[in-house]
Amino acid sequence: VEDFLLTTLRHEQKEHFGILCLNSQHHLIAFRNLFSGTLNAAAVYPREIVRQVIEDNAAAVILVHNHPSGVAEPSHADIRLTQEIRSAMTMIDVAVLDHFVVGDTETVSFAQRGLLN
Q1: Angle at 14 between CA 11 and CA 15, to 5 degrees
Q2: Closest C-alpha to 18, from 2, 3, 5
Q3: Where are the alpha helices (DSSP H) in 10-104?
Q4: To the nearest 10°, the Cα dihedral for 9, 48, 38, 32?
Q5: pLDDT of residue 117
Q6: What percent helix, strand, coil does the chain show, rounded to 5?
Q7: Could you read off the pLDDT of 13-58 as tens digits, one per residue?
Q8: Whether the predicted pLDDT of 112 surpasses 90
């Protein structure tokens, strides 16, 4: 997953937010780039994520966004948004397995950092 995300998002000049939609066996259904923004922000709407997840009939998702600055460290806003999306996904019984932030040379996993508790 990390290699795919680095290859896909590391060179983007604008911030992009997407989801990996997974089936009940956690196999990939689709990668959806849902929101694009500016150099340091993208407006993300949980209701649009819910709509796409239902349309794809996903059982789980992995959230992903890039930081065009190249620094993959999650911000407080990233952590807050992840909590909002997890809350929305809980209402439709869809698991949020992780949230990756993509920088120039690395990704940061919220799950590995214990930020999904």
Answers
A1: 100
A2: 5
A3: 46-56, 76-91
A4: 20
A5: 75
A6: 35, 30, 40
A7: 999 999 999 999 999 999 999 999 999 899 999 999 999 999 999 9
A8: yes
Instruction: Read off the tokens for 11.
Output: 């060179």
Residues 100, 109 contacting (CB under 8 angstroms)? yes
- Of the candidates 72, 99, 71, the residue with the CA atom closest to the CA atom of residue 84: 99
Q: If you average pLDDT over residues 75-80, what whole number do you get? A: 96
- The end-to-end CA distance of the chain, in Å, is 21
* Residue written as token pair 């040379």: 105
Tell me if residue 14 falls in helix, strand or coil: coil
- Residues counted in the chain: 117
Q: In what order do the strands lie in the sheet with 60-66?
A: 28-36, 16-22, 60-66, 95-102, 107-109
- How far is the C-alpha of 62 from the C-alpha of 67, rounded, in Å? 17
